[in-house]
Design a protein that fits this description.
The structure holds 2 protein chains of 2 kinds. In chain A, 39% of the residues lie in helices and 20% in strands. Chain A is an alpha+beta fold. In chain A, the strands form 5 sheets. An 8-stranded mixed β-sheet of chain A has the order 7-8-11-1-12-13-14-15. Chain A has a 3-stranded antiparallel β-sheet with strand order 5-4-16, with no helix packed on it. Chain A is elongated, with a radius of gyration of 30 Å. Chain B is of the alpha/beta class. Classes of the chains: A alpha+beta, B alpha/beta.
């Protein structure tokens, strides 16, 4: 049997989360806004208008390019991409062609065992063949036999980023998008929500015999609006191409559309010839001069990237890969962890456990991000120290989490205020223990008859009566003494 | 002499001295328009009558109510002792290629005939902020594509006030005709290959193409974005300087508008030409054009009257202390038109894409369910022949398989033309010129219908003006006498980037030297 491999390249469009559009001062984000409410003469392409570049879009583009190890061009140009469509009010899109903001680049993509064909984790280097700035187009829709145009999205800044044909499986493609989404949010340059179209992806797919290096005709899959759907669509397409080739048929350069509900690909159009967009330099804009001063200012405070931080959490804190992965899934969470570890000074794994079990649940339940918690990293550290010092026991500690978050008081203040400190006074515990034994003569008898396991039950009863404040070790000593 | 025949600076002065009111000035201009302009240009206009042939037809849209409201506001300010602005009460016309809020902004094309702009172009807004009063929108070649004004979809097209069977030139023919006929002392035009300077020469007025980026293009319906320059049309140099003071300068709406300080153009106007180096180039005393039969290029000297006018200007300036430098080579001048053919059409075709029947302007009334068909019909019916020719050629030379051989080559030629100027103006080079003195046009105003339809030959009317657009340098055309037929001759001054003040200063010196010339007192036929 012939073995095939897939050759996949991804073309992504990333909406940058600037306040205003790329060439005018209209609000960029129109989510849930009525059609044609965030528009002006410039983004609607009225006669006589001119674009003025929003520097914030360039700066966000530079952050992404830097993260992708791309070379930033000191001088880059905008070009016009000419074509007719009702959602493109000028009849051309202002984009970048041969001298774009950045050149080259790559992402070393960790593919986990769970997404690996042979069950072994590996790293795939995905090269970047194109990274440029452009303006988004509007939207059209059909309703009641009429065609409507909404220009709200016109002029929203985009980065178009295209990978080389470097991905080999649908899982790799999904991993790439997951890592890209993580990175975009980490850098704070895009909301990167595929469902909302902040991150859009077209996939180019072809197959070849394993071992070959040629590139066969590819199909382009469009309109996929989630990472899982991209994975599924590519998987379907690889299977289809193998079936066709096995049946002795050719693969044509079609454009395919993913029908999410039916879980099938549909042919949109044949694409045998490339459209001629008649690119030429945009005469209405000056070149972008990325001098060292500007670049240094943009990159001041450039963060440690998620994959680097993940590796460091493993090496510097001795965290398991699993913990490091989750703790670096989101930048504010990883910052929280790191601050908590530093303030605490104790075992990082202990901090990780509390974060992964309790803090993450709290974030999910309350729909918050780590930086929005009243229970900041310093207070988590304080709480852990209270436990370590024996001032409170673990169960008090756990219930304190909610109380701190709700009251906005520090753990120490709450312990003080509510008298939550452990009771380690022998006399108080002894009195309660005597009570417990007096109230449960049958259990006392059973214990004395050799049922040792009841000791845990007696301790529990004491704890309950003391609303968890008793030091369980002392309670056990006292009970053992009384039952001797 | 009526108020409307006074210069802008005189009107502004008399108004401040409260000798006249803004409303009086306005009424004088409206009266002049009433008597000389005839019917305005309209779509699908009736055939030309004998009476039409005796009128100027500068306007497409007259906005007297708007103007009156502004004039009254100026008069109120003056009565209240407030500063009404340096151009207070001075009427001006606007080439109908600029958007002005609430007015039809047609580009002289059917495709925009129903378009009312929702915003105002920066240079117009600056004129109005300086107190000037807009009288209305004047005619032009459709989308500025032409050198005779005849291609307007709004007919009758303007006629040359000096001789009414002649074209006013173009594309700012409505601007120069309105100023020459005393309908307004100032007009705002645009110059992409000579569209201010050539009609200024034909109509015997002053027309300045500023440095590219000196005046904002915001609100100017684009022809060739890398060449378009808004600029003033006036009856004398001082008025042009006054207008430059109002319109020049950086603009947050136009990133190509240069952030270079604007001098006071009036300040140095009277300083004379002593010590200035002014060049003459043999390459501006001949034109080279293609022989359409055999494809070769032919060279012809300019008419003697035109060369004589320029040489006399040089003599006068020399007598006033300028140093005349002969024989300055500008070898790439002859390639200006072919390079322009390519560059302007690529940009024009792209700039015209937005006129698609979807958002504004003309849409075919024929119902269709097919989007492509709607585009084809709307554009086919809405555009006249000149935009169509430019779209065809622009699409051709920018196609992937041809763009290297045409578009990119034309851009290299453009660089060579720029180098001609750099060498001539280089302060440590062999010529060290402050300005180059040339004829503006190879001929004086030609007869209506004489060239129209021959779009190649029509283009060659711009041969001496287009190099400045390629190079981005400023130029001004000045009235330089009349030819044997009584038609104005234009002389041109070209200078290095941002030397408008120097060009105006030389122009003013020339005006003074020729103040007593008999031709200065000849009135155009339309005013006779």
């Amino acid at each position: 049997m012939i073995e095939y491999e897939a050759v996949i390249g991804l073309e992504t469009h990333i909406q940058l989360n600037t306040q205003t559009k790329i060439f005018c001062s209209c609000k960029a984000d129109s989510w849930n806004d009525a059609p044609n409410t965030n528009i002006c003469p410039v983004c609607c392409g009225l006669p006589g208008v001119l674009p003025v570049l929003n520097k914030a879009a360039v700066e966000k583009g530079v952050l992404l390019a830097t993260a992708m190890h791309s070379e930033i061009r000191p001088l880059s140009f905008f070009d016009r991409k000419n074509y007719f469509y009702p959602d493109l009010p000028k009849g051309y899109q202002i984009s970048q062609f041969d001298m774009s903001l950045a050149k080259g680049g790559y992402l070393d993509l960790p593919v986990p065992a769970s997404a690996s064909p042979d069950g072994k984790a590996y790293v795939r280097r995905v090269t970047i063949s194109k990274l440029h700035l452009e303006e988004d187009a509007g939207k059209t829709k059909n309703a009641g036999g009429q065609r409507y145009v909404d220009f709200n999205r016109c002029g929203v800044p985009l980065v178009e980023m295209v990978t080389g044909p470097d991905l080999r499986t649908a899982d790799e493609a999904a991993q790439y998008l997951t890592r890209l989404r993580q990175l975009l949010r980490w850098l704070g340059i895009s909301e990167a929500d595929m469902e909302r179209g902040n991150l859009r992806c077209d996939a180019n797919v072809s197959i070849r015999r394993k071992g070959e290096t040629i590139l066969n005709p590819k199909t382009e899959i469009k309109n996929v609006n989630s990472i899982e759907n991209v994975r599924e669509a590519i998987e379907h397409e690889i299977e289809r191409q193998i079936r066709e080739v096995e049946a002795g048929n050719r693969i044509f350069a079609w454009t395919l559309e993913w029908d999410e509900d039916a879980g099938v690909l549909r042919k949109m159009r044949s694409k045998e010839t490339e459209a001629d967009y008649r690119y030429f330099r945009e005469p209405d804009l000056l070149p972008i001069r990325m001098d060292d001063t500007w670049k240094t200012a943009i990159l001041a405070g450039f963060p440690e990237l998620p994959l680097e931080r993940r590796a460091r959490f493993v090496s510097a804190y001795g965290l398991p890969e699993y913990d490091a992965e989750i703790l670096t899934s989101e930048r504010r969470l990883s910052d929280y962890f790191e601050t908590a570890v530093k303030t605490y000074g104790g075992d990082p794994k202990r901090v990780s456990n509390w974060l992964m079990n309790d803090i993450l649940r709290m974030l999910n339940d309350r729909g918050l991000t780590a930086d929005q918690l009243k229970l900041g990293p310093a207070w988590l550290a304080e709480l852990l120290k209270l436990i370590d010092a024996g001032t409170i026991n673990i169960s008090t500690g756990k219930s304190l989490l909610q109380k701190v978050e709700e009251s906005g008081l520090s753990p120490a203040a709450l312990v003080e205020k509510e008298g939550l400190a452990k009771v380690s006074d022998d006399a108080a515990i002894r009195a309660v223990a005597q009570e417990v034994l007096a109230e449960n003569p049958r259990e006392v008898e059973a214990f004395k008859g050799g049922k040792d396991t009841l000791m845990g039950w007696f301790v529990g009863q004491v704890m309950r009566k003391m609303r968890g404040k008793a030091d369980p070790n002392i309670a056990r000593q006292v009970l053992e003494e009384l039952l001797k | 002499m009526e108020l409307c025949d006074l210069s802008a600076h005189e009107l502004a002065l008399y108004l401040r001295q409260r000798r006249i009111s803004a409303v009086e000035i306005l009424e004088s201009c409206l009266k002049r328009i009433e008597s000389v302009d005839g019917r305005p240009g309209t779509l699908d206009s009736s055939p030309l009558t004998a009476e039409d042939e005796q009128k100027v037809h500068a306007f497409i849209t007259l906005t007297p109510e708007r103007a009156r409201a502004q004039a009254e506001a100026v008069d109120r300010k003056i009565a209240a002792g407030e500063d009404p602005g340096p151009l207070a009460g001075v009427p001006f016309t606007v080439k109908d290629i600029f958007c002005v809020e609430g007015t039809p902004s047609t580009a002289a094309s059917r495709i925009l005939a129903n378009f009312r702009a929702p915003y105002t172009a920066t240079p117009v807004a600056r004129m109005e902020a300086a107190g000037a009063i807009m009288l209305g929108k004047v005619n032009l070649d459709e989308f500025t594509y032409g050198s005779s004004n005849e291609s307007s979809a709004f007919q009758p097209s303007p006629r040359n006030p000096w001789k009414l069977d002649r074209v006013p030139g173009g594309s700012s023919g409505g601007s120069t005709a309105s100023v020459a006929a005393g309908e307004a002392p100032l007009s705002l035009g645009t110059d992409t290959a000579g569209s201010i300077r050539q009609p200024a020469a034909f109509c015997g007025v002053v027309g300045m193409k500023p440095t590219y980026g000196r005046v904002s293009r915001y609100g100017l319906i684009a022809f060739a974005s890398s060449l378009d320059c808004p600029g003033p049309v006036a009856r004398n140099v001082t008025d042009a300087a006054l207008m430059m003071n109002a319109i020049a300068g950086a603009d947050p709406h136009d990133s190509t508008a240069a952030n270079v300080p604007v001098p006071d153009y009036l300040a140095a106007l009277e300083q004379g030409v002593k010590g200035l180096r002014i060049g003459l180039s043999p390459d501006y005393f001949r034109i080279t054009y293609p022989n359409l039969q055999n494809g070769t290029f032919e060279t012809q000297p300019l008419p003697a009257e035109i060369e004589t006018a320029v040489r006399r200007a040089a003599d006068l300036l020399a007598a006033m202390g300028a140093e005349i430098v002969e024989g300055v080579p500008m070898p790439n001048t002859r390639f200006g038109i072919p390079a322009y053919f390519v560059i302007s059409r690529v940009e024009a075709a792209s700039n015209l894409h937005r006129f698609d029947g979807v958002k504004y302007g003309y849409r075919t009334p024929q119902p269709t369910n097919d989007l492509r068909e709607m585009y084809r019909r709307s554009r086919g019916e809405g555009f006249g022949p000149q935009p169509k020719l430019r779209i065809l050629m622009g699409m051709y030379v920018s196609a992937a398989q041809y763009s290297e051989q045409y578009y990119n080559r034309a851009l290299r030629v453009r660089t060579l033309i720029r180098q001609d100027f750099d060498r001539a103006f280089d302060p440590s080079g062999p010529y060290r010129l402050n300005a180059l003195l040339t004829p503006t046009t190879p001929t004086t105003a030609f007869k209506m219908a004489a060239l129209y339809g021959d779009s190649v030959l029509m283009q060659y009317a711009d041969q001496l003006t287009v190099p400045a657009n390629h190079a981005g340098v400023p130029g001004v055309s000045l009235p330089g006498g009349l030819d044997s037929e009584g038609l104005p001759i234009g002389i041109q001054l070209l200078g290095p980037d941002y030397s408008e003040d120097v060009l105006l200063r030389i122009g003013r010196a020339y005006e003074e030297a020729t103040e007593t010339d008999p031709w200065r007192r000849v009135r155009p036929q339309a005013l006779a």
